[in-house]
Design goal:
Elements lengths: L15 E7 L7 E5 L2 E5 L2 H10 L5 E8 L1 H6 L1 H7 L2 E8 L6 H12 L10 E6 L5 H18 L3 E13 L2 E6 L1 H19 L3 H6 L5 H15 L3 H13 L1 H10 L5 H12 L25 H16 L3 H19 L9 H17 L8 H21 L12 H15 L5 H4 L7 E6 L5 H9 L6 E6 L4 H10 L6 E6 L12 H11 L1 H6 L2 E5 L5 H16 L4 E7 L4 H6 L6 E6 L14
Parallel strand pairs: 1-4, 1-6, 2-8, 4-5, 6-7, 9-10, 9-12, 10-11, 12-13
Antiparallel strand pairs: 2-3, 7-8, 13-14
Helix pairs in contact: 4-5, 6-11, 8-9, 10-11, 12-13, 13-14, 13-15, 13-16, 14-15, 15-16, 18-19, 20-22
């Protein structure tokens, strides 16, 4: 109803029609014409009421603003001849200024309840009375229409033109009333990203065009830059159809309105890949990631922030940082696939972890780590709609995160090797070794792919056996470290086990970080050694290193195991497996 059309299925009896006019001091018999029909009347609003009544649109109420002189001279004629069920005059002084204008507008709006029982159709006659009364009537009607939404509609606005003596022509100016609504709809799109107002004003246009306008709103508010780019591109291609729809609605300045809207689409539109003329099935998956796309997404993020869509902006910013890292790494194809994005996210999680450690990081690595942590926390706070103990009342933290990201983007592009710490030393095998070194031997000869380096947790008494196991397995060329424990049975006296395990994880973090993949043997040594290697497996995953865990089974008797330790046992994979070279990473929020 607010779009200018009566709701489908609504009968005329369900609507209250109201004439609003102002009266002057004189009444002259004139023949008025409207829609090729004529009628004689002493006043333009009387003629209008008769012409519309003949079309089956009788007024339920007629309201006339009258100065004292008009009320005495012309209102009696108006009251007796206007075709309306109820006729009312509103006394008003012929003066201007803020107070007088306010008085007029209050008198007009007070005639209509805040929630009308029936939908209202307002018909304005702007022919007679003081000139500024016509303008105030026009402004007041627009206000009522905007305030009451689907309950009030300006159905007509008429002005009487007198080309010759005794002849008058009534012009319907309603399309001029629609012009501010069109301007407001375009302004709303620019300010909020919602094209719903445009779609409502074109509600009887091609259904496909209306759906595209609604899609434009959805993709914008959902923060979907690729889908938004597609919809905007398709609307640009339908520029002529949009212009035709505007002309059919008789919108003034239709060409300018169309050009302004189409121009605004250029900021977000995205052409289809491969030089195609349109978006086809599967085209999104073929998009290449380049600097231009990153800049388009960055502009969209700032636009969302300017429009107050902070929660959407911070979610998109997180994905934008992943996209930027993929671009830095040269992963410009297939960049929307999960198996491509997950490693990039893992690298950022690693930087987040290391930003709290003593590990040396470059300036850009440190900034990325801190920003990723700040952004993750902000995203989670907004995504969970404040269901946390901390209070959120402003967008300050979001704006700070975006400002920090802008600083990162302003830095010179660095080679990918400087962006991602570690991961250059190949596969690391971590294993415990007690007084029976057979489990270490079995791990070395059985695990595939073979390790590039080795970290063994042993005691002073078991170190020699561990070295013999390495030699017997033919792995003396390995970069091997023997981490000798003060006690193989537990932490030092007075140390809490959990704190001791954390210290060991910190001490060996660099080794874990340098590895590209980690295998952990859980068999061998003491219970304390088993807890240690288990804790390092957890730390490796926190650093987003692909990690596998396995145990060993030796079906021989204990005596035979002791007498012949260097016989390969059976590997039992617990996490990962022989063909799982890239263990699924634990995802962090």
């Amino acid at each position: 109803f607010a779009s200018g059309a009566r709701p489908e299925g609504m009968a005329t009896g369900d609507i209250e029609r109201v004439l609003v006019t102002s009266l002057g001091k004189e009444a002259k018999e004139t023949t008025y014409e409207l829609h090729d029909r004529t009628v004689p009347a002493p006043l333009a609003p009387i003629a209008l009421s008769k012409l519309l009544d003949s079309e089956g649109r009788r007024f339920h109420r007629a309201i006339a603003f009258c100065t004292p002189e008009a009320k005495a001279k012309t209102f009696p004629t108006f009251r007796s001849e206007v075709q309306a069920d109820v006729v009312k005059s509103i006394d008003i002084e012929q003066s201007s200024g803020p107070d007088a204008d306010e008085e007029f507008l209050e008198a007009l709006t007070n005639e209509f309840p805040r929630r009308p029982a029936k939908p209202l159709e307002l018909f304005l006659d702007l022919t007679q009375g003081p000139r500024h009364f016509a303008l105030l009537t026009y402004v007041g009607a627009l206000y009522l229409q905007a305030l009451h939404g689907d309950r009030v509609r300006v159905a007509g606005a008429y002005y009487g033109f007198f080309p010759q003596r005794g002849r008058g022509r009534l012009f319907d100016l309603r399309r001029l009333l629609d012009l501010p609504r069109w301007a407001n709809a375009l302004h709303t799109y620019d300010e909020t990203g919602s094209a719903r107002g445009i779609a409502d004003l074109l509600e009887d246009a091609n259904r496909s065009l209306l759906n595209r306008l609604k899609d434009l709103s959805f993709t914008h508010h959902a923060g979907l830059p690729l889908e938004l780019g597609r919809v905007a591109f398709e609307l640009q291609k339908r520029e002529k159809e949009l212009g035709k729809a505007l002309k059919q609605h008789g919108v003034p300045l239709a060409q300018q309105l169309k050009c302004q809207f189409v121009s605004s689409l250029g900021d977000v539109a995205k052409e289809p890949p491969d030089g195609a003329q349109d978006w086809r099935q599967g085209a999104k998956g073929r998009l290449l990631l380049d600097r231009a796309e990153l800049e388009r997404q960055q502009k969209f993020i700032h636009r969302l922030l300017d429009q107050g869509h902070d929660a959407v902006a911070v979610g998109l910013l997180r994905e934008h940082i992943v996209n930027w890292l993929l671009w830095q790494l040269g992963r410009t194809q297939g960049w929307l696939e999960r198996e491509v994005r997950t490693p990039a996210e893992s690298a950022l999680h690693t930087l987040r972890q290391l930003s709290h450690s003593s590990e040396p990081l470059t300036e850009q690595q440190a900034k990325l780590g801190r920003l990723w942590e700040q952004l993750t926390d902000e995203r989670n706070a907004l995504a969970h709609h404040g269901m946390r103990r901390e209070e959120r009342r402003s967008a300050r933290k979001t704006r700070e995160a975006v400002a920090e990201w802008d600083k990162v983007l302003s830095l010179p592009d660095e080679p990918s090797g400087e962006l991602l710490p570690g991961g250059t030393e190949g596969r690391l095998l971590i294993a415990p070794c007690g007084m029976s070194p057979g489990s270490l031997y079995s791990a070395l000869v059985g695990v595939r792919p073979k390790p590039d380096s080795l970290l063994v947790f042993c005691s002073e008494a078991s170190e020699e056996g561990a070295r013999r196991a390495v030699e017997q397995a033919g792995c003396t060329a390995l970069d091997a470290e023997y981490a000798r424990l003060p006690s193989p049975f537990g932490p030092r006296a007075g140390d809490r086990p959990e704190r001791a395990l954390e210290k060991l994880a910190e001490a060996h973090r660099r080794r874990l970080l340098d590895a590209s993949e980690v295998d952990v043997c859980l068999t061998g040594g003491t219970t304390w050694m088993g807890l240690i290697v288990g804790r390092l497996a957890t730390e490796a995953r926190r650093l987003q290193r692909p990690t596998r865990e396995f145990g060993l089974v030796d079906r021989r008797s204990p005596e035979e195991q002791r007498s012949k330790p260097f016989v390969a046992g059976e590997l039992v994979w617990i996490v990962g497996g022989p063909d799982d070279g890239a263990q699924a990473r634990a995802e962090e929020e």
